[in-house]
Each structure stands twice: as C-alpha cells, then as structure tokens.
Amino acid sequence: MLSTAQEADISSARIHPTAVVDSAARLGKDVTIGPFAVIEDDVSIGDRTSISNHVTIKAFTTIGKDCRVHQNSVIGGIPQDLKFGNEVTQTIIGNNVIIREFVTINRGTKAVGKTTVGNNVLLMANVHLAHDCTIGENVILANLVTLGGHVEIEEWASLGGGVLVHQFSRVGAYVFVGGGFRVVQDVPPFILAAGEPLKYTGINHVGLRRRGYSPEERQTIKKVYRLYFRSELNRSTVLEKIRDDFPSNKNIDRIINFISSSDRGII
Questions:
Q1: pLDDT in tens, 19-64
Q2: Nearest CA among 143, 149, 191 for reference residue 168
Q3: pLDDT band at residue 165, thresholds of 50, 70 and 90?
Q4: Which of 5, 17, 141, 206 is the 20 to 30 Å CA partner of 183?
Q5: Residue 181 CA to chain centroid, in angstroms?
Q6: In the prediction, which pLDDT does 1 show?
Q7: In the 3-class helix/strand/coil scheme, how is the chain assigned residue by residue?
Q8: Strand partners, 104
C-alpha cells in the first residue's frame, strides 16, 4: 500500500502511458518518465528528475533531485563480476547529475556495497561505471570513458573521451586526463596526465584557476610535483623532503596523503 504522501507525489509525476513503473518505486514531485522506460521496485527518484525514453532503472537504485537521464541508459544493473552472488547492494546517484545516452552504471558488490555518483556530475554518452566505483562531486567523464571496478574519481576531475581506467585505480581531485589514454596507476591531485604509458605533463593550471586557486598556490603545487617527479629520490624520502620544505599547506598535505596511501603506485 502507498502512503498518502507517496500517492500525492506519484500523482504529480508525468509518466508516459507506455512506461512500466513498479508500484513500489518512490517518485518525488514533478518527476518525468518517458516512453518505454522501466522503473523497477526499490527505486527512489528525487523531485524534478527527468527519465527519458527507453531508460531502465534497476532495483536498489536511488537518484537525487534535478537529474536528467537520457535515452537508453541502464542504471543499477548487476555487476559484471563472476564473484557477485545476488547480494543486495546499491546504486546511489546525487543531485543535479546529467547522464547522457547509453550510459551503464552497475551497482556494488558485497566488497563495498554500493556504486556512488556525487552531485553535479556529467556522464557523457556511452560511459560505463563498473561495480563499487566512487565518483566525487563535479566530475566530468567524456564520451566512452570506461571505469573498472572499485575505481575512485575525486571531485572536479575530468577524463577525456575514451579514457580507460583499470580497476582499483584512483584519480585525484582537479585532475585532467587527456582523451584516449589508459589509467593503470593512481593519478595524484591537481595535475594534467597524458601519454602512453600515462605520465605527469604539468599541473592543471586552467582548472585550478577556474576553481579559485591563486597564482601562488598553483606555483607551490608545481614546485612540489617538479620535486616529486624529477628528483632521483625514492618515494618515502621525497615525501619526507616535501613535508619539510612545505609545512602547514593543505594542498600539499593532500598530495602527500594521496601518494602515501597509493596501493597501485603513482603514474
């Protein structure tokens, strides 16, 4: 049975007569469901979100407010992981997320329990997010980006078209990865990365300037990465030197913490 509040919300939704919406789905106010869309049970869709034609929203999926899901996308499909045992896991999409055509997002496995996409994310056409991925706020993934399982993309990162990311890899905040390249190790914050194999090619001056980083902050970040990538010191020694040379700096602390916690190694 639906509560009175649920009935009121569903009555405000605009559902095309060819759409299939399970009675257990929870729809916010002014939700739009297009032709031939399928909304399964245990799905929650926030206010003013638009679901276009031929979209499938699988069970255990939560989509926030003011999102737009374009044609033929599949959100919350079961993981492409042979170890998956039909356990109950989730897909969680934040607010103001744009999901373009033919995007596929798999829900989590018991290892993490959920696949998460933060607020204000843009996933362009044909993007694939595998199980247990974590996408931070304001991330942009261009056309054909493919993420393996357990990938973490921190806030404001941007991946160019066709980028492939190996499972368990991490991409730091404010990173830009050039189109068509492969990420097989961790990419630390604030940098540009390109090449085969993927390499540090400088700091993301344009992205950092747009986000309000001062010239002094950008110059300090550049000095730290010049020391890290160009010195002949091993990782622990160079990080200790960076700590000594740049104390009490939140941006540098973030770089150090990211590199120190890397399991796959740094590009």
A1: 999 999 999 999 999 999 999 999 999 999 999 999 999 999 999 9
A2: 149
A3: very high
A4: 206
A5: 18
A6: 33
A7: CCCHHHHHHHHHCEECCCCEECCCCEECCCCEECCCCEECCCEEECCCCEECCCCEECCCEEECCCCEECCCCEEEECCCCCCCCCCCCEEEECCCCEECCCCEEECCCCCCCEEEECCCCEECCCCEECCCCEECCCCEECCCCEECCCCEECCCCEECCCCEECCCCEECCCCEECCCCEECCEECCCEEEECCCCEEEEECHHHHHHCCCCHHHHHHHHHHHHHHHHCCCCHHHHHHHHHHHCCCCHHHHHHHHHHHCCCCCEC
A8: 74, 128
Determine the pLDDT at residue 4: 37
Q: What dihedral do alpha carbons 17, 18, 22, 27 form, nearest 10°?
A: -60
The catalytic residue positions are 131-132, 149
C-alpha 255/C-alpha 154 separation (Å) is 13
Distance from the Cα of residue 7 to its chain's centroid: 33
The two structure tokens encoding residue 192? 């540009």
The answer to whether residues 53 and 36 touch, using CB atoms and an 8 Å cutoff, is yes
To the nearest 10°, the Cα dihedral for 188, 155, 89, 126? Answer: -90
Is this model's pTM higher than 0.90 or not?
yes
